[in-house]
Amino acid sequence: MARVRSFPAALRRAALAAAAALLTGSCDRGILNPVGPVGSAEKTILINSTAIMLAIIIPTMIATVAVAWWFRAGNRKAVYRPDWEYSGAVELVVWSIPALTVLLLGGIAWIGSHDLDPAKPLKSPNAPVTVQVVSLDWKWLFIYPDQGIATVNQLVIPAGTPVNFQLTSATVWNVFFVPQMGTMIYTMPRMTTRLNLQADKQGIYDGLSAHYSGDGFSGMQFKVHAVPPQQFAAWAQNARGTPKALDGAAYAELVKPSSYVKPMTYGAVAPRLFESIVANQAPPPMLPKTTPPSMRVSPKPPLEPANAR
Amino acid sequence: MLGKLTWHAIPFDQPIPLITSLIVILIIGAIGIWVWRKGWWPYLWNEYITSTDHKRIGIMYIVLALVMLVRGFADALMMRAQQSLAIGASQGYLPPEHYDQIFSAHGTIMIFFMAMPFIIGLMNFVVPLQLGVRDVAFPTMNNVSFWLTASGALLVNLSLFIGEFSRTGWLAFPPLSEKAFSPGVGVDYYLVALQISGVGTVLTAVNFVTTILKVRAPGMSYMRMPVFTWTSLAANLLILAAFPVLTATYAMLMLDRYLGFHFFTNNGGGNSMLYMNLIWVWGHPEVYILALPSFGIFSEVVSTFSGKPLFGYRSMVYATLAICIISFMVWLHHFFTMGAGADVNALFGIASMIIAVPTGVKIFNWLFTMYGGRVRFTVPMYYAIGFMLTFVIGGLTGVLLAMPPVDFIVHNSLFLVAHFHNVIIGAVVFGVMAGYTYWFPKALGFTLDERLGKMIFWCWFIGFYLAWFPEYALGFMGATRRLQHIADPSWKPYLDVAMIGALVILAGIVLTVVQLLYSIKTRDRRLDLTGDPWDGRTLEWLTLSPPPHFNFAVLPDVHGEEAYWTRKLTAIREEKLIEEPKYEDIEMPVNTPTGVICAFFASLTGFAVIWYIWWLAILGLIGAFAVLVWYAWRDEHEHIIPAAEVAELERERRRVRAELLKTLTAPA
């Protein structure tokens, strides 16, 4: 019987472990420390839904242990009702409780899905920055079509400004994910997905591929630098001075499998490179040398991806 | 001549698989020789390998499941060790090309060759007994099903020694699993093994759906069937609907890989999103194929050990059928992050949450079954209560994952991995362990050691929480799954706790072997002489333990929902057993080596296809077909158990029962 008595103790231990895990889980670089509107909204839904459900399951867990213990075979005080096998009232309650909970959570899910649709542009007074994301074996290529530059494994964005991502893959599937910024999304070959995120706080955040893509997958990490808008403009200007250009040859070199790749910057990008990758065609030739990279300044006509909405 | 097969296929340069394979080969050889020295081969051949008896086939399934549990768990330990070691500057002891095979094999083996055979084994053993009949509808096909499953398991394990296994995860998503990105034999091993075992699984479903719908004892109407039988029916209907989708999906991927088709390729009009949809159209129901029978086991266990009928039996049946149907309408929740619109995501999210309603109803009904009962804390009951406590947490995290905005930040993370282990360990493993302990005396005539059984339970229970709660937390920190190397050193403490949890579970698995051997050694102390060791309520407890070949001398006449319980109460009230019936000859199906020979040729064909040895593949197919023709031409279908022999066995049972009745009716 001693063993029986340890059930509530085991439960307490489990609950404590869970609480401890959840508390310490809010370490400073995860989804519980969002730095933008998308991540914050998602965290709120996560916490609220968990609280709603805990209100049901904690009493259920306590009742399970309490009922099992009280009605143990040795307890003479417990009333044995060997034929009690149906009660309309009880059935009504046991169907209603989960049904009402799901009704409530379903409402949250419906509204949340629409508010946080990855393709939906974020509301902001600032004009969004467009970044085209390409997953390669096994690194990330970020193309800034408006700035005419590209980076590898390093995403620099202006803080407080929405970023409009267009994503594809030049290889197998991956998932673009910056835990502290919120929503992740698949990058898929021959297809473009869209994602809108924003970092309000300046800082350096971890980014990763969240979908296994082969042997070099673990080394497919990148850093997001959220910097003040002026600094972003200066960085872009400076980057255009980089002599390396992402033309057909450089791209052919870049797609060769490699992992744990150090950040790189390209001062120029072959025109419509992203669209070529989506179409699975060789990148078009670079613009004539008479237009040096430093001349290609904003504003230039925004690129319309072929298969954007 | 040998296709792609050369000496390079043997991993001479990799000590881990090489040494493991040699040890496994030695162990198998040693067991083979030991059995031969003891002279047990004819017994094994006649009573198990070629048996068409559903009870023997059930036991073989469970033995296969336990062996595969050890294999799959060895993979789990290696993964945990790698993640504990490969942090920061260290790369651990497993290079990516090996680690990737291990997590792919772990998932494949645990789902297809551990959980499925365990569940199907319990169904095989229990369902015909609960229905009060002598065998399943198609006994020979049952044997074929088992051997095809075993053939798949053999091929998966062969990849350890010859060639390599898939490195594409347990579902082999294209385009990674296409020839362009995975040119090796690994994906072919995966596809071919699962195609062969998939045929076995579909045949099982055909068999059990037919049995439950058409072969029942007189008076056993649908609403009198025990809940385990109901959940088995639901699970087999799901198999029947879902597994052909899996077969077709794998067939398309095989056409891509072998014949240059473009179903899921990046070029030529292929679309990998199609694979994602198709595989989860199978994959989500698969969860319930495993979970529903476990719910059935818990229903039997809670009712028996509370000394009460199952509370809200009809509710439970409706809840089971509701889960069965809704589980086909939720597959999209596995890829909310693929960029479908908000309406689609929200619709599938809400559909997924709706499954929580009938599941919640089940939890409450088990609770009310205990309410007003006399709960006996036996090992199966420990698992049942442990399950109820653990599963609600898995349900909570499951509903969170069903909410698209939450899934957007935890999809594919260790939170997800913790969630599905929470439900698979909490429901399926606890369920099959409860079922194994509960029906063991019925199968072998003696109970398992109770004290060791409780230790095993605590190992699984505590080990589960230690192994998976840190992973929930890691998911919140942004840890994704399938990482061969961990960049963030602050995750180490969590991974170390998870490693300790895995070691606690290891202790449980070792104790399971110890419990089995110890219980066999001391079986004389724990013989089940009455056939009803737990004061049971369903028909399997009417027979002796182990039941005779024909199960029931006369098919029981069923009155009421709890066929055996009603009969027991009547006997106690009237202080006598029912009138002795007139015994008749019983026809039983004869043994046949069809299954094992068929599976031999299937393995041969499978191996040949994997290695592009086309002449052997054709030979294997011809062989398998020839077996079929030979079987179709057989002269002898059944053998007769004469009435005198039936009477003798049945009179022994009645003598035992009369004695039991005396003890039950004796004045206290």
Q: How would you characterize the overall build of this protein?
A:
The complex is a heterodimer of chains A (309) and B (668). Chain A is built from 6 helices and 13 strands. In chain A, the strands form 3 sheets. Chain A has a 6-stranded mixed β-sheet. Chain A has a 5-stranded mixed β-sheet with strand order 4-10-9-6-7. A two-stranded parallel sheet of chain A has the order 11-13. The longest helix of chain A has 34 residues, at 37-70. Chain A starts with a helix and ends in a 31-residue tail after the last helix. Mean pLDDT of chain A is 87; it is low at 1-7 and 289-309. With 309 residues, chain A is an alpha+beta fold. Chain A has helices at 2-25, 37-70, 88-115, 229-240, 248-254, 273-278, and strands at residues 129-136, 139-144, 149-152, 154-158, 163-169, 174-178, 182-187, 193-197, 203-209, 222-227, 245-246, 264-266, 268-269. Chain A folds into 2 domains: 2-115, no CATH class; 129-295, Sandwich (Immunoglobulin-like). Chain B has 668 residues and is mainly alpha-helical. Chain B folds into 2 domains: 1-39; 40-592 and 634-665, Cytochrome c oxidase-like, subunit I domain (Cytochrome C Oxidase, Chain A), CATH 1.20.210. Chain B is 67% helix and 1% strand. Chain B has 20 helices and 2 strands. In chain B, strands 1-2 form a two-stranded antiparallel ribbon. In chain B, helix 14 runs antiparallel to helix 15. The longest helix of chain B is centred in the first third of the chain and has 36 residues, at 96-131. Chain B is globular, with a radius of gyration of 25 Å. Chains A and B meet through helix 1, helix 2, helix 3, strand 7 and strand 9 of A and helix 4, helix 8, helix 9, helix 10 and helix 11 of B.
